[in-house]
Amino acid sequence: MDNLPEKNEQYGTKDYWDQRYQAESDVRSFDWFKKYSDIADLLRELIPDKTSKVLMLGCGNSTLSEDMYDDGYKNIVNVDYSSVVIEQMQKRHGTDRPEMEWRVMDVRELEFADDHFDVAIDKGTMDAMMTAKGDVWVRFTEADPPEQVVSDCTKEVDEVIRVLRKSSGLFLYLTFGQPHFRRRFLARPETSLHIKELGEAFHYYLYIVRT
Question: CDD domains from the entry (predicted)?
Fold first, then answer.
């Protein structure tokens, strides 16, 4: 792909994504790893009520939202800090999927009231914030990750828990990141955490946080 960053840590910057989405404006979509068809049965099990209010964190131009919408989940709010991709997605889906919302917003500072959503989904956004150094999919070699990574990931999870319904909220985080590194950002005294290992030859993980 022509628009790969020179340094891995660029994945965590707004400028990189604005430039990439602008350069790839003719590209239909890009999904980090699994598509909706790969996880649809699991999501239907976890989100049986298709009227649930869903927050898609760092939506990019992934097809996940549109595929969920077409499967009956009409109440989806998509946020991304790239105004470029939000404008592109509004134009792409405004007519065919009018009930979906698209908002320019940083997942570390969500502009929603408390107890606002039933479900929040992160598919690759937190991974992008973990690229201060090292590889996006594996743990850092240091005993502790860089302070900026800890701060960014903690802010996202804090904000997600804040905007989810108390006692019934669901946060789903899909990643190749293994539990020995990701768990520290997701485990909280006031929530429960369950981890599903998925895939066969190449494992990936679904972290299920309930408020």
Answer: AdoMet_MTases
Q: Residue 19 domain-assigned?
A: yes
Q: Which domain holds residue 109?
A: 8-25+32-210
Collect contacts of 131-139 with beta carbons under 8 A, ≥24 apart.
131/8, 131/9, 131/10, 131/11, 131/12, 132/9, 132/12, 133/8, 133/9, 134/8, 135/8, 136/8, 136/11, 137/175, 137/176, 137/177, 138/177, 138/178, 138/181, 139/177, 139/178, 139/180, 139/181
In a domain, 188, yes or no: yes
Question: pLDDT, tens digit, for every residue of 54-105?
Answer: 999 999 999 999 999 999 999 999 999 999 999 999 999 999 999 999 999 9
Query: Cβ neighbours of residue 198 under 8 Å, at least 6 residues apart?
Result: 39, 42, 204, 205, 206
- Residue 48 falls inside a structural domain: yes
Give pLDDT tens digits for 177-203: 999 889 999 999 999 999 999 988 788
Please check the confidence at residue 44 and state whether its pLDDT lies above 70: yes
- CA-wise closest residue to 69 among 107, 32, 102, 27: 102
**Pair type for strands 76-80 and 54-57:** parallel
The answer for residues whose C-beta is within 8 angstroms of residue 53's C-beta and 6 or more apart is: 75, 77, 116, 117, 118, 119
Could you tell me the CATH number of the domain that includes residue 76?
3.40.50.150
Predicted TM-score (pTM) of this structure:
0.86
Asked if the structure places residue 1 within a domain, the reply is no
